[in-house]
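Propose amino acids for all 465 sites.
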C-alpha cells in the first residue's frame, strides 16, 4: 500500500504528486514517509499551525541557492504538501539521505558502542570526520543568518564508514525577528542560559550545543554530565546540573563531575579525556566548556571548531598494538606518548612533526596553528602547501607533491619533492638550498622548507625517530 502526496507550487523541479511508502518514522512533531523511488522523504505534521506554512516558505527561500558543497550537510524543505491521500495536511518534501546513514545517537552513546564499531574496522578518525561534518552543517545555518533550536545527536544522521554527517531538522532554524523557536532544545545539549534565564536560541547558544555534540562524538560521552545530585527535587537537580551549576567533566579546577577512570585507556575500561585531543581541539574545548560555559560571548565560533577539527586530521597516528588512530601527542616527552585506547607507548621510529607558516606581508612569514604528523611514506598533499586552506573532505584525487622517507641507517627522515616546483630550504647550520623534483632534504629540527612561491613554509619541530 502507498500514499499519494500532492505538492504546492513552487515545485522546484519536483513532480506535482509523489507516491510514498505506507511505513512511517514517527517523531514528536509528525511522521516521515519515504518516496517509492527512493529519492525523497516527506515530513507530515500532526497538527496545523497558522504560521507553519509561512515558516516553511521562509526556510525554503533561505536555502534555495545553496552551493553543492553546503547543500550536502543539511536537508532543507524543497516544496510544501498540499494534500496527503486527498486530505489537506501540513508538511514538506525534502531529499532523502541514503539508508546507510544512521542516527548519530546510535553511534556515540557509550564507549562500548564505539568499541563495536572499532571491531569492524572503523577508526576514531571516522568520528573526527563526522564531527567536522556536523560543524559544517551548523556553519551553513550561521552563514545564512540562522541559528537552530534543537542541536543534538538525534537530529544528525551519520555514515560512519565515510565519516560523513547530515543535519536532518533544517526546519528547526530560527532567525531573529522572522522565525521564532518552536522548541527550546534537548537538556544535555542546550546552553545553560536557556535553562536558567530563558534565553532564546541563537548563534551563541548554538556554539555551546556544537561543543557538546563534538565532544560527545569524540569522547563517547556527554562532557557536562552531572555526577552528583544538586537538589532533593529531581527536576530542580536537572535544571541546576545542566544550567546554573553546569560543569565541564574535565575542568582542572573542579572535580565534582569528573568520571572515574578518566584518562585511563578506553580498552582497559577507562574514559577518554579531552587531554587526548590535539592542541587546537583542547583550546576550543576550554573556550567553550570552561571560559565560555557561563560566559557566552567567550565561546569559540563554528569556524574556530572547523579549523581545530580540520587541523587534527593531519595529526593522526596509528597504534602499532591496537591499530587505532589518535592525535599524536608530540607536545609530550617521548616516553609519555601513548595510545589513549590501549595504553601502548608509541614505538620508534616515531613520526616527524612539522609546523606550518604563512606569508602575512610580502616576504614576512608567521606560524599558523597547524601541524603535520608524518611517518615513513606519508604524502604531502597539494592543499597542505596552499595558504588559508583547510584539509578537504577527502583527499582522493588531490595531487601529492612530496612524501617522507625513513632512513633506517641514519635513523632520520627525509622529505622528497615529487612536484614540478622548486623548494627552498633553510637550516640553522647551512645556507639556503634549492630542492628540485625528485630531490630530498634531511628533516632535522628547525629545518624550514618553503614549498614554492606563494606557498606555505614547513618547519621541523620534532625530527621523530
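Proposal:
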Amino acid at each position: 500500500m502507498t500514499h499519494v502526496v500532492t505538492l504546492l507550487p513552487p515545485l522546484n523541479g519536483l513532480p506535482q504528486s509523489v507516491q510514498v511508502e505506507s511505513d512511517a518514522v514517527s517523531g514528536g512533531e509528525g511522521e516521515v514517509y519515504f518516496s517509492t523511488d527512493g529519492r525523497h522523504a516527506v515530513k507530515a505534521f500532526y497538527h496545523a499551525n497558522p504560521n507553519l506554512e509561512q515558516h516553511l516558505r521562509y526556510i525554503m527561500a533561505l536555502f534555495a541557492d545553496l552551493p553543492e558543497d553546503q547543500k550536502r550537510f543539511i536537508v532543507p524543505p524543497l516544496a510544501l504538501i498540499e494534500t496527503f491521500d486527498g486530505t489537506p495536511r501540513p508538511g514538506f518534501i525534502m531529499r532523502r539521505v541514503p539508508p546507510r546513514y544512521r542516527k548519530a545517537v546510535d553511534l556515540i552513546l557509550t564507549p562500548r558502542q564505539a568499541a563495536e564499531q572499532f571491531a569492524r574496522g572503523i577508526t576514531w578518525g571516522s568520528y573526527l570526520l563526522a564531527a567536522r561534518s556536523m560543524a559544517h552543517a551548523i556553519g551553513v545555518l550561521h552563514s545564512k543568518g540562522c541559528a537552530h533550536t534543537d542541536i543534538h545527536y538525534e537530529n544528525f544522521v551519520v555514515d560512519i564508514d565515510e565519516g560523513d554527517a547530515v543535519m536532518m531538522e533544517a526546519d528547526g532554524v530560527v532567525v531573529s525577528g522572522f522565525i521564532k523557536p518552536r522548541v527550546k532544545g534537548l537538556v544535555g545539549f542546550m546552553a545553560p542560559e536557556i535553562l536558567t534565564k530563558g534565553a532564546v536560541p541563537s548563534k551563541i547558544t548554538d556554539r555551546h550545543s556544537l561543543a557538546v555534540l563534538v565532544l560527545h562524538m569524540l569522547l563517547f560521552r556527554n562532557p557536562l554530565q552531572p555526577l552528583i545530585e544538586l537538589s532533593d527535587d529531581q527536576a530542580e537537580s536537572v535544571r541546576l546540573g545542566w544550567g546554573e551549576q553546569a560543569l565541564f567533566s574535565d575542568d582542572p579546577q573542579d572535580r565534582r563531575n569528573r568520571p572515574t577512570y578518566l584518562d585511563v585507556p578506553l580498552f582497559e575500561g577507562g574514559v577518554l579525556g579531552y587531554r587526548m585531543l590535539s592542541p587546537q581541539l583542547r583550546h576550543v574545548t576550554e573556550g567553550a566548556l570552561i571560559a565560555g560555559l557561563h560566559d557566552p560571548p567567550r565561546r569559540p565560533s563554528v569556524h574556530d571548531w572547523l579549523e581545530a577539527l580540520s587541523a587534527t586530521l593531519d595529526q593522526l597516528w596509528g597504534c602499532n598494538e591496537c591499530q587505532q588512530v589518535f592525535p599524536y601527542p608530540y607536545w609530550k616527552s617521548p616516553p609519555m606518548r601513548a595510545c589513549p585506547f590501549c595504553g601502548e607507548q608509541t614505538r620508534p621510529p616515531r613520526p616527524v612533526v612539522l609546523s606550518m607558516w604563512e606569508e602575512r606581508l610580502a616576504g614576512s612569514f608567521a606560524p599558523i596553528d597547524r601541524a603535520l604528523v608524518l611517518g615513513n611514506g606519508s604524502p604531502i598533499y597539494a592543499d597542505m602547501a596552499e595558504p588559508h586552506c583547510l584539509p578537504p573532505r577527502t583527499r582522493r584525487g588531490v595531487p601529492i607533491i612530496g612524501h617522507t622517507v625513513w632512513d633506517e641507517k641514519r635513523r632520520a627522515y627525509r622529505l622528497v619533492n615529487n612536484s614540478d616546483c622548486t623548494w627552498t630550504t633553510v637550516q640553522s647550520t647551512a645556507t639556503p638550498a634549492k630542492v628540485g623534483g625528485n630531490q630530498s632534504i634531511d628533516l632535522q629540527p628547525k629545518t624550514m622548507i618553503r614549498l614554492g612561491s606563494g606557498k606555505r613554509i614547513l618547519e621541523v619541530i620534532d625530527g621523530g625517530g
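The longest helix spans residues 124-143. Residues 12 and 78 are 7 Å apart (CA to CA).
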